[in-house]
Amino acid sequence: MHNGLHSRTPSCLEDIPVSTIAQPYARPAQTNRSTDRIFFPLLTLVILVIVFLGFSRTYYTAGMVLAPLPNALIHVHGAAFTGWLLMLAVQTGLVAGGRTDIHRKLGLWGFGLACLMVVLGLLAATDQLRRGHGTLGLDPATFYIIPVSDILTFAVLTGLSFRARRRPAAHKRLLMIGTIGMLDAAVYRMPYAFTRSSHWHADAVSYALLLALMLYDLASTYRVQKATLWASLAVIVVQQVRVPLGFSPPWHAFAHMMQHVKV
After folding, report:
1. How far apart are CA 185 and CA 122, in angstroms?
2. Angle of helix 72-96 versus helix 33-55 axis, rounded to 10
3. What is the C-alpha separation between 106 and 162, in angstroms, rounded?
4. Helix (H, G, I), strand (E, B) or coil at 177
5. Which residues lie below 8 Å from residue 11, measured CB to CB, with a gap of 6+?
6. What's the rounded Cα separation, in Å, for the pair 143 and 200?
7. Which of 190-194, 225-229, 243-247 has the lowest mean pLDDT?
8. How far is it between the farthest Cα atoms of the chain?
9. Span 171-191, mean pLDDT?
10. What pTM was computed for the model?
11. How many CB atoms lie within 10 A of CB 242?
12. Burial bucket for residue 116 (CB in 10 Å: 0-12, 13-18, 19+)
């Protein structure tokens, strides 16, 4: 009789998931959308300022279309890169303003522009090599690995971002980190002795932005998001190994072969 009475005794815990009982103070897994609407537009603004400072003298204040660039390819490349930054700013602003419907519609155009940037970036880097351009104390063949690695890293992270477009937290972080990873072209052109003196110093500016994103993750979600962590590590590893690799005989042989490619 005791067992029968016990089996009919209602329990207030019957319908509560075990995970809820075991983890009453679980931290939120999702990002904080209200703070995202402030942080990501600010991060985009910082990126725009860096690019403007880097290319102001030779491109933006020189009239853009009227700027004395080496050839038409570099003009098209500059226009596409500028278009990408404007697209990034518009898309970030739309999300911050709650217009995700328009954001999604523009997404395919943005992905198409990213694909165009990859092609133009590789062509522009090869054209730069053919013209014998080297900077930051690097010869043209060694320097060639910097823009090539930048654009390939951007291609991978942007492609993964498009794939993760239904996961907003990962999507926006991959896009931002992919863009940050190719900022060194603007950074080492900035009118400051620190950024002009070494490619390591130019990379440090990008790392500061990556660190800011990690700290934001910690402050808003109590942990560094997976996309932030592995994408940032990918950018850092690529930037740390590329210059030593650029000095290697196999890379110089490849650069010498590409030097004869007409673009």
Report:
1. 13
2. 160
3. 12
4. helix
5. none
6. 13
7. 190-194
8. 96
9. 91
10. 0.82
11. 19
12. middle
Distance CA(237)–CA(4), nearest Å, equals 66
Answer yes or no: are the C-beta atoms of 192 and 168 closer than 8 Å: no
pLDDT digits (tens, 9 = 90+) for 118-147: 999 999 999 999 988 777 778 999 999 999
Q: Which phi-psi region, left, alpha or beta, contains residue 132 (left: φ > 0; alpha: ψ -120 to 50)? A: left
- Judged by average pLDDT, the poorest of 15-24, 48-57, 108-117, 151-160 is 15-24
Helix (H), strand (E) counts: the chain: 13, 0
Which of 128, 147, 129 is closest to 256 using CA atoms?
129
Average pLDDT estimate for 232-259 = 94
Residue 124: partners with Cβ closer than 8 Å, 6 or more residues away? 73, 74, 77, 147, 263
**pLDDT digit string, tens, across residues 184-193:** 889 988 888 7
Domain ranges in the chain?
35-258
The answer to whether residue 49 scores a pLDDT higher than 90 is yes
Pair 175, 161: CB distance under 8 Å: yes
Q: Transcribe 209-249 into DSSP letters.
A: HHHHHHHHHHHHHSS--HHHHHHHHHHHHHHHHHHHHHTSH
